[in-house]
Structure formats: C-alpha cells, structure tokens
Amino acid sequence: MARFLIVEARFYGHLNDMLVEGARGALEAAGHEAEVLTVPGALEIPGAIALAVEGGGYDGFVAIGVVIRGETYHFEIVAGESARAIMALTMDGIAIGNGILTVENEEQALVRADPAQKDKGGEAAKAALALYDLQRKFLP
Ligand SMILES: Nc1c(NC[C@H](O)[C@H](O)[C@H](O)CO)[nH]c(=O)[nH]c1=O
Ligand SMILES: CC(=O)[C@@H](O)COP(=O)(O)O
C-alpha cells in the first residue's frame, strides 16, 4: 500500500469537495492510503507539494483545485503557473496527477468535478497512480 497526499486549493470549497471525493475514491479503490492537505489557492499547490516531498513520507500526490476565469489576466497567471510548476515537479520524477480545473464558469466546473460525471479528481488520481507504477518499474 502506498501513501498519497491530495493537495487541495480551497478556493471554491463545494467544487473541491467533489474533486477530492473522486480522487480519494480512486486511490482507495486501488488499495492505497489518501491524506488531504489544504492550501488557499492553486498557486500554493506546487509549493506545498515541494515541501511535502522535502519532508518525505509520500509516494505520490494529487493536485486538486478550480480556477474560474474572471475579468482580468489573473486567470492566465493562476492556471498557467500552477500547471507549469506542477509539470516541473513531475519532470523531477515526482508522481503527481494534475486535477486543477481551468474553466470559463462554474457550470463547466460542476460537470468536471462531479465523480458521477467527468470525475476529473478521479482521473488525476489515476494519473498519479500511473506515474507511481512507472517509478517502480524504472527505479526499482
Ligand atoms: N483566482 C483563483 C485563485 N487565486 C488565488 C491564487 O491561487 C493565490 O492563492 C493567491 O494569488 C495568493 O498567492 N486560486 C484558485 O485556486 N482559483 C482561482 O480561481
Ligand atoms: C482566477 C481568476 O481569474 C479570478 O478568480 C480572478 O478574477 P478577476 O480577474 O475578475 O479579478
């Protein structure tokens, strides 16, 4: 059994609850342990994961958040920089699934967060599991 950390940005709580439910469900269905750590927004997720890696004790991570376009360029910063930093951690060999939704409106987010519909939280957890399996294959 492996130990995964779900790092969720609590910016849109009700949407995150669904994403976390999907992620936790996928990890537990695969026989693994899931813990949840909360940060304020998507921009804090990569830093939190980097700190948790430094601290040790986790085999993989699932980034959970929702970024909804507003009126300004802030959307591009939050969506782009969080994805870029998560990808940088992935390229360092850390098993991370990116479940940060980047959407135009809440309606799009709901369909994607709902475990009974697009289940993007579960999908991100499965991506983390796939990378964890690859770590064990190539770095036994
Ligand atoms: N607008 C959204 C944010 N913005 C907040 C940033 O992520 C960050 O917490 C702040 O800039 C302080 O560093 N975060 C989201 O998760 N979703 C958004 O739509
Ligand atoms: C991430 C966003 O775009 C949003 O929360 C910020 O909204 P605004 O651009 O209207 O300040």
From TrEMBL:
<feature type="binding site">
    <location>
        <begin position="42"/>
        <end position="44"/>
    </location>
    <ligand>
        <name>5-amino-6-(D-ribitylamino)uracil</name>
    </ligand>
</feature>
<dbReference type="InterPro" id="IPR036467">
    <property type="entry name" value="LS/RS_sf"/>
</dbReference>
<protein>
    <recommendedName>
        <fullName>6,7-dimethyl-8-ribityllumazine synthase</fullName>
        <ecNumber>2.5.1.78</ecNumber>
    </recommendedName>
</protein>
<feature type="binding site">
    <location>
        <position position="11"/>
    </location>
    <ligand>
        <name>5-amino-6-(D-ribitylamino)uracil</name>
    </ligand>
</feature>
<dbReference type="GO" id="GO:0009349">
    <property type="term" value="C:riboflavin synthase complex"/>
</dbReference>
<comment type="pathway">
    <text>Cofactor biosynthesis; riboflavin biosynthesis; riboflavin from 2-hydroxy-3-oxobutyl phosphate and 5-amino-6-(D-ribitylamino)uracil: step 1/2.</text>
</comment>
<keyword id="KW-0686">Riboflavin biosynthesis</keyword>
<dbReference type="Pfam" id="PF00885">
    <property type="entry name" value="DMRL_synthase"/>
</dbReference>
<feature type="binding site">
    <location>
        <begin position="66"/>
        <end position="68"/>
    </location>
    <ligand>
        <name>5-amino-6-(D-ribitylamino)uracil</name>
    </ligand>
</feature>
<dbReference type="InterPro" id="IPR002180">
    <property type="entry name" value="LS/RS"/>
</dbReference>
<dbReference type="GO" id="GO:0005829">
    <property type="term" value="C:cytosol"/>
</dbReference>
<dbReference type="GO" id="GO:0009231">
    <property type="term" value="P:riboflavin biosynthetic process"/>
</dbReference>
<keyword id="KW-0808">Transferase</keyword>
<feature type="binding site">
    <location>
        <position position="112"/>
    </location>
    <ligand>
        <name>(2S)-2-hydroxy-3-oxobutyl phosphate</name>
    </ligand>
</feature>
<comment type="function">
    <text>Catalyzes the formation of 6,7-dimethyl-8-ribityllumazine by condensation of 5-amino-6-(D-ribitylamino)uracil with 3,4-dihydroxy-2-butanone 4-phosphate. This is the penultimate step in the biosynthesis of riboflavin.</text>
</comment>
<dbReference type="GO" id="GO:0000906">
    <property type="term" value="F:6,7-dimethyl-8-ribityllumazine synthase activity"/>
</dbReference>
<feature type="active site" description="Proton donor">
    <location>
        <position position="74"/>
    </location>
</feature>
<comment type="similarity">
    <text>Belongs to the DMRL synthase family.</text>
</comment>
<feature type="binding site">
    <location>
        <position position="98"/>
    </location>
    <ligand>
        <name>5-amino-6-(D-ribitylamino)uracil</name>
    </ligand>
</feature>
<feature type="binding site">
    <location>
        <begin position="71"/>
        <end position="72"/>
    </location>
    <ligand>
        <name>(2S)-2-hydroxy-3-oxobutyl phosphate</name>
    </ligand>
</feature>
<dbReference type="InterPro" id="IPR034964">
    <property type="entry name" value="LS"/>
</dbReference>
